[in-house]
Specification:
Mean pLDDT: 92
Strand order of the largest sheet: 3-2-1-4-5
Distance between the termini: 54 Å
Radius of gyration: 18 Å
Oligomer: single chain
CATH architecture of the largest domain: 2-Layer Sandwich
Shape: globular
Number of strands: 5
Helix content: 40-55%
Strand content: 5-15%
CATH superfamily of the largest domain: Ribonuclease H-like superfamily/Ribonuclease H
Structural class: alpha/beta
Number of helices: 7
Length: 204
């Protein structure tokens, strides 16, 4: 069973990100403050939930949270400052967007940079341990997926509505065939020699 928060009797925000391992699209982060009696059933790590469940939870979280915020850092900046710094920056921007100021921040993972003067704690696999981090993981995932689905309409050959920008074999083959777009992260390895060899052999 997931716990509500780390600290008792403090306004605590949970933070998480989505899209860190992608080769296309932004990294998206969310920050969520939940009330003690939130009434949201089934909250868990977004990776353990079906798409339909995530979408239902997104609606509940956005209605019942004390405050929530989502932010994205785009591909060009990811290439400039690296994905770790971009992920942390996205979380900071999401925290900036909260309508209520947190007194403590719980962050999924093991890396974070201080936000203002607010104390924080990083928790490995925190999205499977704390409800507010799980809620943040759901919002980050659903908002980013929706963005990639919309982006797919103009770039259907990469099938972003399905792979969401992750480096699947299908996506990497599309990069070899059609090249990189402005939405690809140029600092990431988008193909690999074995895949390129395989595609050449298949076409010969």
């Amino acid at each position: 069973m997931l716990r509500l928060a780390i600290q008792e009797n403090r306004i605590e925000a949970g933070c998480d990100e989505a899209g860190r391992g992608c080769i296309a699209g932004p990294v998206c982060a969310a920050a969520v403050i939940l009330p003690e009696k939130h009434g949201i059933v089934g909250l868990n790590d977004s990776k353990k939930l079906s798409k339909s469940k995530r979408d239902k939870l997104r609606s509940q979280i956005e209605k019942k949270a004390i405050a929530w915020s989502v932010a994205m850092v785009w591909e060009k900046e990811i290439d400039q400052i690296n994905i770790l710094n971009a992920s942390i920056k996205a979380m900071h921007i999401a925290l900036d967007g909260l309508e209520a100021k947190p007194e403590f921040i719980a962050v999924d993972g093991n890396r974070f940079k201080p936000y203002a003067t607010i104390p924080h704690e990083t928790i490995i696999k925190g999205d499977g341990k704390y409800l507010h981090i799980a809620a943040a993981s759901v919002l980050a995932k659903t908002h980013r997926d929706a963005y990639m689905k919309d982006l797919h309409e103009n770039f259907p050959e990469y099938n972003w509505q399905k792979n969401k920008g992750y480096p699947t074999v299908e996506h990497r083959i599309a990069v070899i065939q059609f090249g990189l777009t402005q939405h690809h992260r140029k600092s990431f390895k988008t193909t690999d020699p074995q895949l390129k060899l395989w595609t050449k052999e298949k076409s010969s």
